[in-house]
Amino acid sequence: MSKGENSQLCTEFAGIRMKNPIMTASGTFGFGLEYKDFIDLNELGAVVVKGTTLKPRPGNTGCRIAETPAGMLNSIGLENPGVDHFKDVILPQLAPYDVPIIVNLAGNTADEYGELARRLDIPGVAAIEVNISCPNVKQGGIAFGTDCASATGVVEMVKRNTGKPVIVKLSPNVTDIVMMARAVEDAGADAISLINTLLGMAIDIRSWRPVLGNTVGGLSGPAVKPVAVRMVWQVAKAVKVPVIGMGGIQSAADAIEFLLAGASAVAVGTGNFVDPRISVRIAEGISDYLTERGLTHVSELIGRVNDYC
Amino acid sequence: MSKGENSQLCTEFAGIRMKNPIMTASGTFGFGLEYKDFIDLNELGAVVVKGTTLKPRPGNTGCRIAETPAGMLNSIGLENPGVDHFKDVILPQLAPYDVPIIVNLAGNTADEYGELARRLDIPGVAAIEVNISCPNVKQGGIAFGTDCASATGVVEMVKRNTGKPVIVKLSPNVTDIVMMARAVEDAGADAISLINTLLGMAIDIRSWRPVLGNTVGGLSGPAVKPVAVRMVWQVAKAVKVPVIGMGGIQSAADAIEFLLAGASAVAVGTGNFVDPRISVRIAEGISDYLTERGLTHVSELIGRVNDYC
Amino acid sequence: MRKLLMQATVLDNMRLTPTVNTLRILAPEIAAQALPGQFVHIKVAAGIQPLLRRPFSIADIHAEQGTLTVIYRIVGEGTALMSSFSPGDTIDVMGPLGQGFRLMGERPLLVGGGMGIAPLLLLAKALCPRPVYVLMGGRTQEEMFWPPLFQNVCESIHIATDDGSLGRCGTALDMLPEVLEQNKIDVVYTCGPRVMMEGVAKAAAEMGIPCQVSLEEHMACGVGACLSCTCAASDGTRRKICSDGPVFWAEEVFL
Amino acid sequence: MRKLLMQATVLDNMRLTPTVNTLRILAPEIAAQALPGQFVHIKVAAGIQPLLRRPFSIADIHAEQGTLTVIYRIVGEGTALMSSFSPGDTIDVMGPLGQGFRLMGERPLLVGGGMGIAPLLLLAKALCPRPVYVLMGGRTQEEMFWPPLFQNVCESIHIATDDGSLGRCGTALDMLPEVLEQNKIDVVYTCGPRVMMEGVAKAAAEMGIPCQVSLEEHMACGVGACLSCTCAASDGTRRKICSDGPVFWAEEVFL
Ligand SMILES: Cc1cc2nc3c(=O)[nH]c(=O)nc-3n(C[C@H](O)[C@H](O)[C@H](O)COP(=O)(O)OP(=O)(O)OC[C@H]3O[C@@H](n4cnc5c(N)ncnc54)[C@H](O)[C@@H]3O)c2cc1C
Ligand SMILES: Cc1cc2nc3c(=O)[nH]c(=O)nc-3n(C[C@H](O)[C@H](O)[C@H](O)COP(=O)(O)OP(=O)(O)OC[C@H]3O[C@@H](n4cnc5c(N)ncnc54)[C@H](O)[C@@H]3O)c2cc1C
Ligand SMILES: Cc1cc2nc3c(=O)[nH]c(=O)nc-3n(C[C@H](O)[C@H](O)[C@H](O)COP(=O)(O)O)c2cc1C
Ligand SMILES: Cc1cc2nc3c(=O)[nH]c(=O)nc-3n(C[C@H](O)[C@H](O)[C@H](O)COP(=O)(O)O)c2cc1C
Ligand code: FES
Ligand code: FES
User: Fold this and answer.
1) ipTM of the complex
2) C48 in contact with D at a CB cutoff of 8 Å?
3) How many CA atoms lie within 13 A of B55 on its CB side?
4) Would you name the residues of A annotated as active-site residues?
5) Mean pLDDT estimate for chain C
6) Alpha helices of chain C — where are they, by DSSP H?
7) Is residue C226 lining ligand 5, measured as CB closer than 6 Å?
8) Domain boundary assignment for chain D
């Protein structure tokens, strides 16, 4: 077995071979390279890169993060260097690594999503993650993720423009997550990512101003874990495509909770900021857990919660 | 001024005179009497009692609470002794206190809500809080709180059956909280309570079972505060009726955040479990804050956040 | 009796076994009132993580010295934090909470399992000068750090361990009929795992001996306000374990 | 240079003023590499509250002893927790992070305000044996605990306080033209409140003196991954303060 491989953890997810089912969540791990002093990227299941748009975007002005109880708000606003810079400058730097690179896409229109998918239907990209759940941009983003018809339109457009597996990242800010999941599955999604951030706000009681320059932002971190686990559980039961679970994962125990709830893989977001080696620690922890329980493969955990309902 | 009164804090909320704008949230303070060793009920703005139904309810089986990062899940399932017991046994015990009693109602049908409101249109009840947001019951509850037409039906029915102020408590588990708020305002709500709990889940990774006997439950506590502040801010801008803000309040600073966001009053829930004297501490803390800033009345805070949008 | 909220001072927090500590605090107002079977609700962290208080049976009190003892097993985040309390620290304690044991009979038997033995310690003291009989079960000798604590407050201690490493090999239930009969027991108090307590209640009922049981459930408020801890009573109504209990008559809550 | 994640040992954590502490840790691998202007990212709580690390400028290093010092003001939850670090404690530290000051010139001036003076301490040492001139501003004498720390590492210290309780009455900016001219300054380094740094940059630019500024922003990752700390550069592109900075040429980030 090559570096980072472990027979208990190797996973095939939506047709992508991974050394383990632990990915880094989009927007929290840059392009992977930022963390290379701390972690051997080859030990990760996959790297999901920052939300990429057609044109470079400067993101939102003012303060972009706020700490909240056991969590944080962010309103980055999809700052990114644009898809061409990603293809021409970043992707070649990732080529030496033996780790699947998943590109998170965000557009203002369904056509833009299609165009992004087309431009990224290239070697070196393992899959596309369609972000229809960014709460921090005025156009696009979450607007697509809270309406079934719009979501369907985006997913169909992306599918038409790429041969890569298409993962759709849903917003938790909806009344019925199962309905959204079924809609994108019907539209051709190969997998579903859950959850993006919950829309939140914090106010500075000294200045009487919102802490975030954008007034509202996305809540992530341990605080949201119960909501994320619940949505993964609901969706995994309702769809046939695999689910990537995320939201507040800080330990192997948290990751196992998502796997038991039905996630076939997990992603770590905010946790990277706290511990840059967290993904590797989690992979090791899951492996230890499997060994202790006499299990041979991580798949033996997936969806195995014995619910009372 | 009588006990507990403070000219900076006295408030008229939806026609109810209160000594201060701090209430206890339904389900977290019993009928008030349970806390009387710790707190003089006369010092509270109002006591909102446990969700009351037509018939006594045993609630859900199995474990009913789980601790989560900076929060907790509950799946009590509206255990309560029924409206008649409340009227005949509990309410008389509350009569000696000089504090408004607000009764939280939950029904399985709009007619049940109407019947409950009718039976509680009696002296000693200051207002009705219509709970269309309980995530822990199979029928009624949240089903009414996630659909505008159902919510409207319930509110109209309650209004027809009572002369008391009608507060409608909304669920945060919706795509568009502003739409729900406008719908209940149009249906005649005199005030809006925000937020009830977020639907969540926790799994015990030793037993592979949900921690809660009811599988899912409602998330409350500091973890949800950013979501609650955001919803209060959105709704307070959009409706004319006053808003009671709640969700994670643990300190005067938290309460002030809600007031700045637009809440005319606040309620403390989970915080009571941590500190049974919390409401009084918060009232004192707000008073100190007003004094430090040279403000004469708490109303000078309401909705005063200077947002950037 | 009035429930109190106090800032108590930690006097000592000693290790009894690698996973069990005994915490002694100065809380005179609580100690002055506490009855066997009641509990305290302790805030384990200064901040919001973990959020909720933790309930612990009162294992001992010295009313004159104003001290109160709880014996706790380190099982998770909260108890791990408690194990770092140091003498002199101030901790936030609510108590005494709940309804304790009703003292009665002439020849009481106390049957305990696991950490359920803690409240029986104070109970044994309170039952003096009656001859108190104690029967305790555990998995191994290691878990059986209790006997020395009971030495001066009971007539005799009967011990069962699953592996026979201390006392009789077997469970407390196996020894129960014999202990009941030989000592002419006229009241039984039990606290421990539910299956054990159910067995004790059944054996006592069969011999017509009154039996009090102490229940446990996850608790948020500890004062009867949140309904997180309720259970069904035999008559079809509900009981709050934190405020109607934790001590009940066996027939009140077991069917 | 490689960024490291280390378990560092606290050596001391002393009070300098009622709200400012100086924390010295044993972190040999970081100390061996650290450059003036770089920072460390410290995990302040063992658990998840508060969640994020806290960034602090490296105020001093002793490469041979393997120690590193940060000087911090207690302003909120995180720094309050830091103030309870005790000698012997192990803390989790990332570093050295960011791009430091570029050492250059013959007669450098360091202009600092508030806690922005901290990184200038290590910079002054590194600029030796050049004659280092320091100009610092603060509100009152109380905030001016810095001069003794700079005593042996600079040629002269110029001080301005808003109330004139120490040094000249006024701001550092008021004194700047005079200090620049009299000491024939050929490079300026500045760290402190943004308005101060903008004023310094402007004055330096007018006199054709190169100027480096150290920016601050709320940071989650500290390594360029999250984009919480970016700012617009004069050329219309973006800079990450944590990894492209915190030190920039004034004209790169100020318009
Ligand atoms: C009335 C009463 C008296 C008790 N007396 C004692 C005693 O004397 N000695 C002792 O060691 N233990 C006692 N317990 C159990 C003790 O409260 C738990 O072991 C403790 O709360 C675990 O906290 P934790 O954070 O370490 O564990 P975690 O498992 O991390 O706790 C997670 C959550 O579950 C709750 N919880 C976990 N286990 C229990 C449990 N067994 N009972 C109730 N809530 C639980 C915690 O309070 C917390 O909210 C008593 C419980 C009750 C209800
Ligand atoms: C590169 C860099 C170097 C710094 N060097 C020093 C130093 O040498 N000495 C010193 O006293 N302070 C320094 N600071 C500021 C220091 O990081 C904050 O004072 C500290 O994070 C406050 O944490 P808190 O929890 O006590 O405050 P809180 O206000 O409770 O913090 C809330 C959140 O805001 C963030 N935050 C608050 N204030 C600041 C700030 N000024 N800058 C960045 N984030 C902030 C916190 O990290 C936290 O996430 C530096 C900041 C940066 C970016
Ligand atoms: C700073 C930050 C930036 C993010 N940027 C993106 C993004 O560009 N695209 C996206 O789909 N999700 C983005 N997310 C959401 C995360 O990928 C993840 O879904 C969310 O944070 C929940 O996981 P966590 O609690 O582990 O952080 C971002 C989150 C954070 C905290
Ligand atoms: C144990 C528990 C029981 C609750 N029961 C009710 C209820 O009966 N009716 C209701 O409208 N809300 C109920 N709630 C919701 C609270 O009133 C409140 O809206 C929510 O907990 C958020 O506030 P908090 O974070 O301060 O707890 C309950 C909450 C908890 C924790
Ligand atoms: S713990 Fe709240 S009612 Fe018992
Ligand atoms: S702090 Fe994350 S990019 Fe700078």
Assistant:
1) 0.97
2) yes
3) 5
4) 134
5) 95
6) 28-33, 77-82, 118-127, 147-150, 172-182, 194-206, 250-253
7) yes
8) 4-97, 108-253
Mean pLDDT of B253-280: 98
Query: For the segment D123-179, what is each residue's pLDDT rounded down to a tens digit?
Result: 999 999 999 999 999 888 888 899 999 988 888 999 999 988 889 999 999 999 999
| Ligand 4 atom index nearest CA of B72 | 31
pLDDT tens, residue by residue, D81-125: 999 999 999 999 999 999 999 999 999 999 999 999 999 999 999
pLDDT in tens, D40-86: 999 999 999 999 999 999 999 999 999 999 999 999 999 999 999 99
Cα separation, C100 vs D221, in Å, equals 52
CB contact under 8 A, D228 and A38: no
Please list the residues that pair with D91 across neighbouring strands.
D8
CB within 8 Å: A226 and B62:
no
Strand ranges in chain C using DSSP code E only, listed in sequence order = 4-17, 20-26, 39-43, 54-57, 60-62, 67-73, 90-97, 108-113, 133-138, 156-161, 168-169, 187-191, 211-214, 230-232, 238-240, 247-249
Cα distances (angstroms) measured from residue C146 to each of A105, C15, C135, C139: 63, 13, 11, 13
**Of ligand 4's atoms, which has the minimum distance to the CA of residue B250?**
26
Cα diameter, chain D: 53
CATH of domain C4-97: 2.40.30.10
On the question of a common fold for C4-97 and C108-253, the answer reads no
- Is the link from the previous residue into A195 a cis peptide, with omega within 30 of 0? yes
A79 close to D (CB below 8 A): yes
Q: Kindly state if the Cβ of B52 falls inside 6 Å of ligand 4.
A: no
Give the model's confidence band at B6: pLDDT under 50 very low, under 70 low, under 90 confident, else very high.
confident
CB D56 within 8 A of CB D22: no
Give the CATH class of C108-253: alpha beta
- Residue D94: which of D219, D33, D3 has the closest Cα? D3
Residue from B10, B134, B148, B309 carrying the catalytic annotation: B134
DSSP class of C114: G
pLDDT at B3 over 60: no
A70, D223: Cβ pair inside 8 Å?
A: no
Peptide bond into C129 cis (omega under 30): yes
> Which subunits count as partners of chain C given 3+ CB pairs below 8 Å?
A, B, D
The sign of the torsion formed by the CA atoms of B24, B30, B36, B42 equals: positive
Q: Which residue, among A107, A130, A133, A131, has the nearest Cα to A219 in the 3D structure?
A: A133
Across A232-237, average pLDDT:
98
Domain map (residue ranges) of chain B:
11-60+75-198+220-307
Contact status of D84 with chain C (Cβ, < 8 Å): no
Specify whether B134 is catalytic.
yes
In terms of CATH architecture, what is A11-60+75-198+220-307?
A: Alpha-Beta Barrel (3.20)
CA of B86 to the centre of ligand 5 (A): 18
Burial of D186 (0-12, 13-18, 19+ CB in 10 A): middle
For A256-298, the pLDDT digits (tens) are: 999 999 999 999 999 999 999 999 999 999 999 999 999 999 9
In the three-class reduction of DSSP (H, G, I as helix; E, B as strand; rest coil), residue A243 is classed as strand
